[in-house]
Amino acid sequence: MCSQNGEGKRVSPRVQELLNHVARTPVRIEILSILTDGTLDLRDLSDCLESPRTTVRHNLQEMIEANLIEETIDNEFRSTPLGRVVLDALTAFSDHVETALELEPLFSCVPPSEFDFDIRSLSAVTVTEVTRAKPYAPHQRLTALIEDATNVSGYIPTNPLLFNRTDAPIFQAADSDISLYVPEDIADTLQAEHKTKLKNLVQRGPLDIGVLAGAKIDYGVARIDDRVVILGLDEHDKPHVLVETTDETVQKWASKRIDSLRTRASSIVETDNRGMSIAHGQD
């Protein structure tokens, strides 16, 4: 992949050589990890690794030549400062890749560039994905989370199906606060199917729906009580994956994203002295 200035993002030859050296066999990363915690002689290290001494000795020698490991005057081995730094970098890299693999269903719908934070903030997540057995699982999970919540604020690019159950807990709690932002086509669907329910819920106070005119945003993001949800859509604009997290960094990102959408929204229902009227606003 090339950067905007036409130069590729390349790893320097020296770094590439060192990475190849460490990753040549899995035992080398294990050696670094063990010797970062203290010094061991060849026999004890072989026992820890459950590996033949000849194999361990060969790898130690090459790692010494790369200045990753050093031998003490007592014929024990320990990690060098460089070895410790390399191990930290490899651990961070491993965590980064592991998170990316878990989030692959989301990244297939939403470019990682949408998230202006370290994706490792998404390492502790719950992922609900479409399957053959459960083709509506993400949508159903989203609806269930909203129904049982007290505070909801966010952009939902698909019909939330909340109004099929106006006896849901969120509509009954006196302290409920629901602020949803939807694209125009979803607003039209809600108006056509639930106009009376919308009027009643807005008059009672717990519900506010804003309409976003213009281009439709390709994914949903909402804060539901103490968690953030990100909804990825497939090529047909159907829910494909729902990611949930309580990470503080992601919560801050979601709040900023939602606030920016709020400034573009106009109320789906306006109240005046003459009653209720449905109105779309402009950007």
UniProtKB/TrEMBL annotation:
HVO-A0261-like N-terminal domain segment(s): 21-101
Domain called Methanogenesis regulatory protein FilR1 middle: residue spans: 135-263
Residues forming coiled coils: none
A Pfam family annotated for this UniProt entry: HVO_A0261_N
InterPro entries given in the database record: ArsR-like_HTH, FilR1_middle_dom, HVO_A0261-like_N, WH-like_DNA-bd_sf, WH_DNA-bd_sf
Protein name: Transcriptional regulator, contains HTH domain
Organism listed in the record: Halapricum desulfuricans
